[in-house]
Amino acid sequence: MTDAGPTSDGESPTDGPTAGAADLFAAIDDEVSGVLVGMDDHVRNLTISLLTRGHVLLEGVPGVAKTTLANVFAEASGLTYNRIQMTPDILPADITGTSVYRENKGEFELQHGPVFANVVVADEINRATPKTQSALLEAMEEEHVSIEGTTLALPQPFLVVATQNPIEMEGTFELPEAQRDRFQFKLTVDVPGRAEERELFDRLDADPTMGVENVEQVVSREAILGAREEVAAVDVAEVIREYVLDVVAATRDHPDVAYGASPRAMIAFLDGAKASAAIAGRDYVVPLDVKDLAHPILRHRLVLTSDAELGEVTSTDVVVDVLDGVEPPSSRDAGERAADAAVDSGSE
C-alpha cells in the first residue's frame, strides 16, 4: 500500500505532521477496533513502537489473532506489509533477498526479500534456525540489510513484529538473549474473555467475511513521521530519569535474576515513555508512563537463576516485585520539573 491519497474532501487521512500523536493513535485504534475486539492496549504499544523505531514480540496460543493484529494495524496505518512464515528450512537470503541472474539482460540483479516493507511479520520466529533468526538482527538494529556486499536501506517507518507460540515447543529454537533484547516490547495476546468473545461472535455472525478487507487507511506516512518528531520533543524530568535508572538497576540486583535488564532496556523506557506521553496529549512524561511499560519492556529481558526457575518464579513475578520495591516520584513533581525545564530552555 502506498501513501494516502486525497479523501473525498481533498484532504489526506490525518493530514501530515500536524495531526499529532494523540490523534494518530486514536484514529488507528478506532479503525482496528472495528475488526478486532479487546486489542486496545496492544494497538497502543504497537503505535509506541512505530513512533520510536522499536520492534515487537507477540506471544500467544494459536487462534488469538496475533498475525491479524499486525496486518490490520499496518492497513490502518497506510503501511506496506509482508509476512514471513518462519520454518526450519528458511534461509537468511529468503528474508533479506539475493542476487538473481537475468538471462535476458545478461547481468545480475538484486532481488529484494520480504524484509523490504514498513511492517514485517516474522510468524512463529522460534521455528527458524538461529542463523536465520540472526538475519533479522541487522534489519532491526541498523534499518538496512546487506545483499551480495551491497547495503540497502529499508523503508521508513520500519517495524518488525515477530510472533511465537508458547505451546508446541518441539522443533523450535529459543530466541537468543541478544535477539530478545532487540525487541522493544514483548506483548502477550491472551484468549479473550467471555464478553469480548461474545462480541466477536456477534460481529462474525452479522458479517462472516469481516477481516482485514474491512480496514481502511486512516493516517498517512507523513503523519507518522511527524508524530515521531513530536515524541522526540517530549520532556523527561530529572526525577523520571532517576526513576527509570532505579527500576533497571533493581532488576540487576534482584536475588532471582542472573542477568538483569541491559542499557537497551533503559532506552526502551525513555523512548516508550515519551511516546506514551505524546499519545496521551502531554509534552512531559509522568511516572505512570514508565510503570505501564515495565512489563512489556522487562519480561523478555530478564534471565532468572536456576533456583528461581525451579521454584516456578516467573519474570512477571520479578517485575511486580521490582515495581513494588522502587518508589516512583509524584506525577505533580514530574510535571512541575518538566515545566521548569521548558521555561529554562526557552530563556537561554
SSE order, as H and E?
HHEHEHEEEHHEEEHEHHHEHHEHHH
What is the name of the CATH class of the largest domain? Alpha Beta
Uncertain spans: 1-18
The N- and C-terminal alpha carbons lie at a distance of 45 Å
Describe the global form: globular
Number of strands: 11
Provide the CATH topology of the largest domain: Rossmann fold
What is the assigned CATH homologous superfamily of the largest domain?
A: P-loop containing nucleotide triphosphate hydrolases
The amount of helix comes to 40-55%
Strand sequence of the main sheet, in spatial order?
2-5-8-1-9
Number of helices: 15
Cα gyration radius (Å):
21 Å
Please state the structural category. alpha/beta
Indicate the mean pLDDT.
88
Your description of this structure?
The protein is of the alpha/beta class. It folds into 2 domains: 17-225, Rossmann fold (3-Layer(aba) Sandwich); 234-342, Helicase, Ruva Protein, domain 3, CATH 1.10.8.80. The chain has helices at 21-33, 40-51, 66-77, 92-96, 130-133, 135-142, 177-180, 194-206, 221-232, 238-253, 263-279, 287-298, 306-310, 315-325, 331-347, and strands at residues 56-59, 81-85, 97-102, 107-112, 119-123, 144-147, 150-153, 159-164, 185-188, 257-259, 303-304. The strands form 4 sheets. The protein has a 5-stranded parallel β-sheet. Strands 3-4 form a two-stranded antiparallel sheet. Strands 6-7 form a two-stranded antiparallel ribbon. It is globular. The chain starts with 20 loop residues before the first helix and ends with a helix.
